[in-house]
Specification:
Blueprint: E1 5-6, E2 21-22, E3 26-31, H1 37-52, E4 56-60, H2 65-73, H3 79-84, E5 88-92, H4 95-100, H5 110-125, E6 129-133, H6 135-139, H7 145-160, E7 166-172, H8 180-184, E8 187-196, E9 199-209, E10 218-224, E11 227-230
Parallel strand pairs: 3-7, 3-8, 4-5, 4-6, 6-7
Antiparallel strand pairs: 1-2, 8-9, 9-10, 10-11
Length: 239
């Protein structure tokens, strides 16, 4: 029996991952600054809402929601109309919002507050696509790395309970060193933005996708006026 998949909405991506993301999966979207992680995540949620009628939740722990709406509008994506229609929720969970709460409203830790808000809203709208941007902000709340790893494990387990959905965890990767999050998630997609002789080159690499026969090559990725496009038939070499 073929596993149920959710289409990404990103041109060329589904051909690299067996026809889409497995339902119930949690995927790490990793890359350096400027590699296109936020655009990638936004496009998946917006296309899911527009084309497939799938409700999406974007939990931002880093950027002002209004900046994300402006970023989206530069690609012709109208986030506000999707929000008004109840097909997209932009959740502002930046640390500053947590510390603005009155002390009696901060009975939870920041991590618990983030997850409680995501869970309640995802259940309310019956989200099919959930994005948390980014894990780096959650990591910064812990002095003890072991405690952070335990919390990330519990977060991934909790996201798996949304068995009809897919979840994306955005992570800004500065070095090429492998992280424990890569081993815990079902999938790992790395977005590369590498200097080459004549400028900069963008590429995508599917490092891991459980229960999926996926490409192991580096494929060209372009950010166009309509969003991200991937050429699944072409591969590049730059290491």
């Amino acid at each position: 029996m073929r596993e149920e998949r959710i289409l990404s909405g990103i041109s060329g991506l589904d051909e690299l991952i067996g026809g889409g993301f497995p339902k119930g999966s949690v995927t790490l979207i990793s890359g350096g600054p400027g590699s296109g992680k936020t655009i990638f995540a936004l496009q998946m949620l917006i296309r899911g809402a527009e084309r497939f009628g799938e409700a999406g939740l974007y939990a931002t722990l880093t950027e002002d929601p209004e900046d994300l709406r402006l970023d989206a509008s530069s690609f012709g994506w109208d986030m506000r109309s999707l929000e008004r229609a109840g097909r997209l929720v932009l959740l502002d969970l930046r640390p500053s919002r947590f510390w603005e709460l009155r002390s009696e409203e901060r009975s939870d830790s920041f991590f618990s507050w983030v997850w409680k808000n995501i869970r309640l809203k995802a259940e309310e709208i019956r989200a099919k696509r959930i994005t948390i941007d980014s894990l780096n902000v959650l990591s910064a709340q812990f002095q003890d790395e072991y405690q952070f790893r335990r919390k990330i494990m519990s977060l991934i387990e909790a996201l798996h309970e949304f068995s009809d959905s897919i979840s994306l965890l955005v992570f800004e990767q500065i070095t090429l060193e492998r992280t424990i999050e890569e081993f815990l998630t079902d999938g790992v997609i790395v977005l590369h933005y590498i200097p080459v002789k004549n400028g900069m080159l963008r590429a995508i690499q599917i490092l891991k996708m459980r229960r999926t026969e996926h490409s192991e090559n580096f494929h060209p990725l372009r950010i166009t006026s309509e969003g991200i496009r991937i050429n699944p038939k072409e591969s590049v070499t730059f290491f």
